[in-house]
Each structure stands twice: as structure tokens, then as C-alpha cells.
Amino acid sequence: MDREINILGGGISGLACAIILCKNGYDVNIYEKREVTGKRFNSDWQGIENWSEETDVLDELKSFGIDLSFDYVPVCELDLHYSDKIRTLTGDNACYLVKRGTADDCLDTCLLNQAKNMGVKILYGTMPDENTPVHVIATGPEKGNIFAKGIKFRTNSPDNYHMAFGDDIAKGFYSYLLIKNGEATIATVFDNKNLHDSENFLNNTIDYFSNYYNPEEVKSGRKFGGFGYFDIRKTLHDDNGAMLIGEAGGLQDYLWGFGMRYAFQSANFAARSIMTGESYDILIRENLHQKLKHSQRNRKLFEILGPLACPLAYHLFNRSKDPLKLLNVVYR
């Protein structure tokens, strides 16, 4: 294959793919329709899950050649809420919090700087012409079936992390509050069937967690919204043969809505396919499809159980001596 590779989309999956290819001697161009990398985020805290596999996700990123120059916070303790019940879950590095956005310490900016320093050419506000072959598509989700609505705000409250279940908060999904170093993110996660209730979900979430911060602090915060897309596709190539990575290919956890680990892994598999000639579809099928299918199964189980789903999930976590191991089993 030609040593010049063109990637459509400059989010974390596109940048990661470019970094891996550049480290292996390829000239990489990224076409990004936005004018700034990370612009759709607000420096809000988001999680990279670390429970679905034995390998620590940060070790995995380093093995791809990605520098860990961004701010990350290991979460070893999480308060799980259901109704008036609270269980503190503990486990080493169950998840890593990262900030998404345009600030210097955000994941997006640090990946951008690494890519630029390696010589990746990033063309903002530009689309390739019809004569330019596109090898990788990393444009993110075109539509959503997982949604989030929240507020980023400053607080004087101490560091703490919370996740809450309950249909009054977000039907079948959850809400969360993450506070670290005076920066807080509060949000609710829900599906497309409940878009019309999103404002109620957010207000209920704010009320529910109000004992953990000064309610006046939230009023000066900045609202944000986002969406993700899950799909199990027969092929992860478009009609022109370009590989679809990250959420452009529907690679998302359908149970909890986590997608960053899939973004990095699929970026690595796409780069590997370019470098070795291996089938990208087969790499995804052999390494990620089982987790995708299990997340779909678990989401369907939640929907079938209806009002019993949330109390059952809380009961299982509450009774488990090793909640992280339980999560790991769920994905296998």
C-alpha cells in the first residue's frame, strides 16, 4: 500500500490511528471538518473503563505508542446508589477519568500535540476531494442511541465519585457525579426512546446528588450534551473500502455507554491492517465482537427485566465480594 494514508476525522480514534501509523513510517493526513480538535467537549470528566479485560488500559495505550501526557485519575472507589441505598465499591484502577476538550490537559489536545510533533498533517475545515483516497473513517457517530446530558461546574467539595440507578433518573441507564480537584461533572445517561425526558432526568439527578455539593455552584456551571452510537455491523468498511473505527463503526459499549477503549483498540487494528495486510473485519470480529455482543445482550436483559433491572443490578453489586470481577465476567 502507498505510504501516504488519509484519515477522515480528527477525534481520539483518528489521532490514535495516525500516531501508530506515523511511528511505523507512514505519512498521515487527517481531514477534520471542525476548526478545533475537541471542540464538542467542555473539559468534562469522562471514564475509560478498565474492567472488561485483564490488561490495564493505560499499559495498552503505551503498547500502541501513545504518550500518557494527558491528565488521568484512577478511580479505586465509587459510591453506587439505588433508591435510598448506597454501596461503596472498591477496586484497583477500575476506571480512569480523563478530561475531554480543548484545554492543555485534555485527552484530545494531548493526542493532537503528539500527532503534530510526529509530523501528522491535520487539515482543519477541509474534506478530501473526490480523487483523494480515504483509508480510515473516524468521524464519530452520525446518529445516536445512547445520550448524555450534564453540567460541568466548579465546586469546593472534596473529591468523590458516584453512580446512581433508577428510572426516575434515567430509564434503564444511570446518572453520575464526578468531583476531582474542584472540577465537577454531573450527568445523566439515557436512550433515544427517552429524549423527551432528558431535562427531567438532569434536574432529578441534580436534586438527587445535591448533598454532595453546594447547589448554588451548579447554577454557574456550563451545560453540555452528547451522544454515542452502538451497532454490530457485518462489515466495518464503507462502500469505498475505507475502515470505520470508533463510533463511526458503532463500536460502543451498549450497556454503560463507554466507548473510548473501543476507539483506541479499533484505531490500532486499522493501523495494523494497513501495516500487515491483515483483514480489519477479522481483527475486530476476533477481538471486539464478543464484548459488543455481550453488551447488547446485557442491554436487552435490562429492557426485558423492566422495573426489576435496577434493583437486581444493585443487589448483585452489593452482594459481590469483587465487583470488578463481576463486571469482567459480564463482558466475557
From TrEMBL:
Database matches in InterPro entries = FAD/NAD-bd_sf, Geranylgeranyl_reductase
Q: Pfam family example for this protein?
A: NAD_binding_8
Organism domain of life? Archaea
Name listed for the protein in its UniProt record: Flavin-dependent dehydrogenase
